[in-house]
Amino acid sequence: MDTTTDELTPAAGPSTDRxxxxxxxxxxxxxxxxxxxxxxxxxxxxxxxxxxxAPVPADEQEDVLRVSSLGHDLLDSTExxxxxxxxxxxxxxxxxxxxxxxTRPLFLRRSNVxxxxxxxxxxxxxxxxxxxxxxxxxxLTDVTDVTISGYGAKFAMAKPEYQTGEWRMALKILxxxxxxxxxxxxxxxxxxxxxxxxxxxxxxDITLRDLVVDNHRRQGxxxxxxxxxxxxxxxxxNTNGTAPQSGIDFEPNAPDDKLTDIVLRDCWFAGNMTSxxxxxxxxxxxxxxxxxxxxxxxxxxxxxxxxxQVMVLSSxxxxxxxxFEIRDSLIHVNEGxxxxxxxxxxxxxxxxxxxxxxxxxxxxxxxxxxxxxxxxGTTTTEYGNIHFTDVVMHTDQPGPFLATDHRExxxxxxxxxxxxxxxxxxxxxxxxxxxxGVDLDATIVDSVPAAxxxxxxxxxxxxxxxxxxxxxxxxxxxxxxxxxAYETSGGARERYDYGGLGKVAVFAPGAREVRxxxxxxxxxxxxDLERRELVVSVAVGHGYVPHHGSATIQIQG
Length: 557
Prior knowledge:
By secondary structure, this protein is mostly beta strands. 3% of the residues lie in helices and 42% in strands.
């Protein structure tokens, strides 16, 4: 793994007289999620403190406002940025200026606006000015029809100085509708990278695309209440600082909060201190709107704190309805962790579904949890509620691949479906003395013949903006599903020249091939290369061996 990072220097400001934050276990390299040619942050240039306003070019639409036309102050440009956000222009461009943009908290309070942050632009929180516990870099409140597009741009806060509180978010969206945020890197907040919550009403129809959400103090993203959420091609990395420290946490605050019509696609979760994905529905009740969350074509890989990679939690006293599904995905477990855990999910509660998903629970030096655990805690008497469809687990952990937390006077219920478990010392599930509603077809084998997996391009060249495709092919036994990991390299940059990828492909039972569609983009600036090379190769994994070679695609124009 390339451990090169692009460290950012926070904007100068009043001293906080605090000691620097101790080194935190940030382990996932930013270069590894942005491609080989990741752009570093713009350095602070030696320039006049205050730059005179530049006129808007005559060939630009009158309804477009470049922030630099209002002015630029190297140490504090809040007044110019906020004036642009408050203006009546329908398109705001945060353009490239020497040294980037330094700011205090910003607010968007109006609808029907597009905000474009140009490539390589940095918007920085000024040190010592986010003193309020709820100070966020950018807050959207009760707005409609908003687009924020920032491919190749960064929003960065000053995490080392935020030693108290957990609410200084990089991007907070409250009570808003029809909002698209794409292409940004969000880094180093004192709370969540992204927060979706209630304003005058709940959020509706939110799309997040191609974001890198990295090194936040509380969560990569918190979802409190939303109807209609699409998260595509995003990476949630290295959350650490104060609990819960997940990649993404669905955590309603009240029984009437909603988590409905939520889809995560082609996402990657890695390096977070607890779980990659958590559903904590504790305030929800049996009469709450049923939860509906689907995670597909995504990788939840190697969170660092020892917690299960994915967790579903219910209240000690009541259940909440709905479904939480992971499909066509990969859960890759590191030392001391496990793949999946449900906690207090009783009859009538949320159903966890694992569909055509691979689990690699391998190389663990010790066992904190079994690979899959259904847990009662101290208050629940009936618990479980998991359905497996065409799941394959590879594990070297001895003992039951699925087990309870062995509380007295409790009953496991509703464990159903089909799973194949491959490992040298695996035992059948331990579901306690009197399981109810258990209909689990578990095939346990010491080993399986490894397939050979190769990759080729659908076409060797595509015009930027048109979809590209790679085709994975396997040899050998095709009776079982097979999840494989892949890597990208080359001069093309992920989430800039092409969309974010989940880095997993899943062969359905009987399938010889699986195809992965890749969104590509036209070049954004004249200085960008006209031809950019994307290379896709099969990564090392379990149940298969990579064939030599790779798929190379030229993105042109």
